[in-house]
Amino acid sequence: MAKKNSKKTVPELRFRGFTDPWEQRQLGEVVQIVGGGTPDSSNADYWDGDIDWYTPSEIGERRSVETSARKITPEGLVHSSARLLPAGSILFTSRASIGLMAFISRPSATNQGFQSLVPSNNVDSNFLYALGPYISRYAKKHAAGSTFIEISGSSLAKAPLRIPSLAEQRRIGVFFSTLDNLIAAAERQEALLRQKKQAYLQLMFPQEGKTEPRLRFSAFNDAWKHIALASVLKINEERNNTSEFGFDRTISVSTMHFKPEGNGAAHASLETYRVLRVGDVAFEGNRHKEYPYGHVVINDIGDGLMSSRFRSFRPTRPICVPFWKYLLQNRYIMTPLLLRSTMRGTLMNELVVDDFLRQRIPMPSLHEQLKIGDFFETLDRLVENAEGRIVQLRKMKSSYLQKLFV
Hints:
Elements (H helix, E strand, L loop, with lengths): L1 E2 L9 E2 L8 E4 H4 E5 L11 E8 L9 E2 L4 E3 L1 H5 L11 E3 L8 E4 L3 E3 L4 E5 L5 H6 L1 H11 L10 H4 L3 E4 L2 H38 L21 E4 L4 E3 L15 E2 L4 E2 L15 E3 L4 E4 L10 E4 L5 E3 L4 E5 L5 H9 L1 H9 L2 E3 L4 E3 L1 H6 L1 E4 L2 H38 L3
Parallel strand pairs: 5-10, 6-9
Antiparallel strand pairs: 1-2, 3-12, 4-11, 5-7, 8-9, 13-24, 14-21, 15-16, 17-20, 18-19, 18-21, 22-23
């Protein structure tokens, strides 16, 4: 690639062999903009056909969509304002979340929440998709409406663009298509690793009432013991009354990360905070989809502070922190346990301490705990590496979007 120095008609960075200035055009000059519509929902003859019919909620960050949640019939298409878009068109959401884009691989229709783009012969579709952030920014700026904000087809058609030759468009389009595919592959890898982790959490810990997991390392065959939490944990009441820790050691219990800026509490309250040391266990009562009764976490990041509104427990004997981390993450074990030991509060679940400490958890030998903890820590590192790859690729794409377009 070779750099060009021009503020108006060429980008900062160009592929070698291209020197011509980019032309000023409007979006409506290079694409046909097509709206959508909804067939009469009370007429069964219009629905459950073979024509994909998309709504904005089905368009996310994916580069393409494969099939729609609902489909319409040819009769539904004819008797509505919906239009059949050719394969290769780019769906463009024009209301709700304005500016989401996705390719369609086969002829499809949409509801009225779209102003979709059908590329002409003088614009490369991959280049047009790469221009998405610029088109989206224009659409959001010029959207209007009283009931809800949307961008009309006529307004969207006026979006100003700088367009190079078709050959340069194709080169740029392939470049960003490759980047998008790399991002998508990294996202699939991350999702697969997370799915594997959930599967292993279910397989490598005993189901309720069982004494052995369904999947074990070959060296282990002893039954797991079920021990009462009270035999290994006690209530932690240690406070920061000696000012051992400052705001920079405030721990977010929900994410188990330090918050160097603190959590907004006054300096005078710092001495009332609970001290959470490595190996201490805390209950966070916010209800989540995966944790309907709150969840329990172990401190594996370092000694620090936590708000006094959270319950905390301290081990009465040395424990294998990595094993406990994943035991407590295991919703197949912890959900029924917390169901039996929490009460539903106004804003969050409240832990009934005596009931909690009476609960029993499965526990293998220390050697097996170490192997399991190491296995899941390795999985988490792979997930973190995949996340880092995604962030790196997205930053790279953002940088090239600035440099390869006018």
